[in-house]
Write a structure and sequence with these properties.
Layout: H1 3-6, E1 11-16, H2 20-29, E2 38-43, H3 51-59, E3 64-69, H4 80-98, E4 105-109, H5 115-132
Parallel strand pairs: 1-2, 1-3, 3-4
Helix pairs in contact: 2-5
Length: 143
């Protein structure tokens, strides 16, 4: 088996407490299958995810970062997800300028009732990260 065959991406996921985190919980309680490659960090709102929180795991070797929030117009904090969307656009430009592949950062709107959508997004992201290969900054993560 070659090194690329053994590659399993590591993904850090910042999930909004009110929607995406609850959707992830629904996926778990519904016993929906998705890869275990994700480390979840619950935030009160997707707008609480500062770009530094996204860049730091990538610089430390995470293969991808997922940001999950409420659908636009459904934010518990009214306009938080609009702020997130603006930051995400700017963040992608910062990543390009820093030489980091912007395809390693995903933003998805997933509500509390969309457990299947969360599971599918995780499957899709893991597959996409496998295709991109290991993050060049990847370090050996302790299990």
């Amino acid at each position: 088996m070659s090194d690329t065959d053994a590659f399993e991406p590591r993904i850090v996921a910042f999930l909004c407490n009110w929607c995406t985190y609850t959707g992830a919980d629904l996926a778990g309680t519904s016993r929906l299958q998705y890869p275990p490659n994700v480390r979840i960090i619950r935030t009160m709102c997707s707008s609480a995810v500062d770009p530094v929180y996204v860049i730091k795991p990538l610089l430390e070797g995470a293969d991808g970062v997922f940001i999950g929030g409420c659908h636009p117009g459904d934010c518990h904090y009214q306009t938080g997800n609009y702020k997130t969307r603006r930051r995400y656009v700017a963040l992608r430009e910062i990543l390009k300028a820093a030489g980091i592949d912007e395809r390693r950062v995903w933003l998805r709107w997933i509500s509390a009732s969309e457990g299947q959508m969360f599971a599918d997004a995780m499957k899709d992201m893991v597959a996409a990260m496998r295709e991109l290969g290991p993050n060049p900054a990847r370090m050996d993560w302790a299990a």
